[in-house]
Amino acid sequence: AHRYWEDQTFRIRWKFLFIKFRPGCYFFSIVIVLKGIMTNVGFIIFENVLLQVYWTVGCLAIYCFVVACYMPWRIIQINFVDVCAHLSLICLGFMMTWFIPRSSESDDVVNWLSVMVSFFTAVICFAGSTHMIAAQTLR
């Protein structure tokens, strides 16, 4: 898309797709659509509610990391707001697990899965935030 940006007809026709993203992140509309699809695929794949919540939280964490790495929005503050909004959704997702009924036999699996997902999500979000701050500082 960036090859054809000099063409006036191309810009007029496709401006609605590209104007909100930085020129190097013209592809980010696809990432947003993939986030929506992958988040909802978890409700089809898994019957267990806990796995559905963890799948959703994992998809949101991956999206949060990608936004922190690429910083696709033209206005820098929107990148920060997007990361903060998704971090709050991740926290709400983890809080929802409190209300999910569990059996005694699955408690060990749930505890292990909760620790692993919480740890990796925190690491991913911290790495993404650190990268975002470092990229902003170097500019």
Could you characterize what this model shows?
With 139 residues, this protein is mainly alpha-helical. The protein has helices at 8-18, 28-45, 49-70, 76-96, 107-138. It starts with 7 loop residues before the first helix and ends with a helix.
Number of helices: 5
Q: What is the H/E string?
A: HHHHH
Largest beta-sheet details: none
What proportion of the residues is helical, as a percent range?
over 70%
Shape assignment: elongated
Terminal CA distance: 25 Å
Calculate Rg over CA atoms.
18 Å
- Which structural category do the helix and sheet elements fall into? mainly alpha
Low-confidence stretches: none
Number of strands: 0
Q: What is the percentage of strand-forming residues?
A: under 5%
Mean pLDDT: 83
Helix and strand topology:
Blueprint: H1 8-18, H2 28-45, H3 49-70, H4 76-96, H5 107-138
Helix pairs in contact: 2-3, 3-4, 3-5
